[in-house]
Amino acid sequence: MIRNGNPAHRRIDLDPVEALRLLDSVSLGRIVFTRQALPTVRPVNHVLDGGDIVIRTHEGAALTAHTQQGGGEGVVVAYEADAIDPDTHLGWSVVVTGYARLVTDPADLARVRTLLAPWAPEEGMDQAVRIRPSLVTGVLLTDTPAGPAKGSVRRAPRTPGRSGTRARTV
Fold first, then answer.
1. pTM
2. Which residues contact 42 (CB under 8 A, 6 or more apart)?
3. 3-state class (DSSP) for residue 74
4. In the structure, what pLDDT confidence band is assigned to residue 154 with cuts at 50, 70 and 90?
5. 3-state class of 120 per DSSP?
6. What is the pLDDT of residues 27-80, one digit of tens each?
7. How far apart are CA 111 and CA 116, in angstroms?
8. How far apart are CA 140 and CA 5, in angstroms?
9. Cα–Cα distance between 46 and 129 in angstroms, integer?
């Protein structure tokens, strides 16, 4: 199907491993949690650490208070990140749903602070939240033909704006 002279885009569901690999290729995303029984969204930066998503926060943040109130497994949150070209609308989007807990172990918190500097530094950004993924979904938006040729390998689009290496604990 052709729209506006451009071929139609295809949506390809990603497996969880590929979705997390793509999530690890960017540093910014959005965390979604409830505040006063309403959905709240905050832009944050993240790092993947041992399969978990870790973000920095400050002591007075709503998310910090919310995770402190959560018992046992933590509180349910969603985390979303993407890399979609604004002109072509091609790229990917990943959503992780899981349990968030405040990082309370002093050694783990110190280590997390070395892995991840706050993207928007603010006084008191000394806390960290660890999200344990329970459900990982992702989609690739592509303009490639419907089926790859036998034996070919589909490569994910490059993510613009990323350079250097990421710290990662496996």
1. 0.76
2. 30, 31, 63
3. coil
4. very low
5. coil
6. 999 999 988 888 989 999 999 999 999 998 876 566 766 676 666 778 899 999
7. 9
8. 21
9. 10
Supply 73's token pair: 């497994």
Find out whether 64 and 130 touch, Cβ atoms under 8 Å.
no
Q: Which two tokens stand for residue 109?
A: 């918190």
- Cβ partners under 8 Å of residue 108, min gap 6: none
Burial of 24: CB neighbours in 10 Å, binned 0-12, 13-18, 19+:
middle
Report the SS3 class of residue 12. Answer: strand
Burial class (CB in 10 A: 0-12, 13-18, 19+), 117: exposed
Q: E strands of the chain, at which residues?
A: 2-3, 6-7, 10-14, 28-35, 38-49, 52-57, 75-84, 91-102, 127-142
Residue with tokens 């400050």: 58
Residue with tokens 């540093």: 27
How is residue 111 written in tokens?
């280590």
Contacts 24+ apart (CB under 8 A), 30-33: 30/79, 30/80, 30/81, 31/55, 31/63, 31/77, 31/78, 31/79, 31/100, 31/129, 31/131, 32/77, 32/78, 32/79, 32/80, 33/62, 33/63, 33/66, 33/75, 33/76, 33/77, 33/78, 33/100
